[in-house]
Amino acid sequence: MEITLAMRIEKSLSKKEILELYLNKVYFGHGAYGIEMAARKYFGKSARQLNLAETSLMAGLVKAPSLYSPFNNLTKAKERQNLVLTRMEEEKYITKTEKENAYKQPLYLSSLKKALRSTATLRNI
Hints:
The chain is mainly alpha-helical. The protein has seven helices and two strands; from the N terminus they run H-H-E-E-H-H-H-H-H.
């Protein structure tokens, strides 16, 4: 059944459209579904404003949001970020210098309490 659904989706949507749908629905942890909500929760800004360091951290969250949450365990989150950056370099999406700079770049995380209040406010509107 899942294979049939996947085949139908591939026939009717482009890979870009499939990725967009996925990123708008996937769970990133701490109640954040979708890349936009997650960007605001973790970094206090829009997904369009994220830099390579932030996006690579976010990409790493999808596999296990609680385990790799920078709010729960920054060391694990950075390990996962490094894996994402390494794969991006191996696939030639970024250079070694870009990888190293992104990994070294400080992450300015939003306060989880503030992020949770923002979500509650959005739900009440």
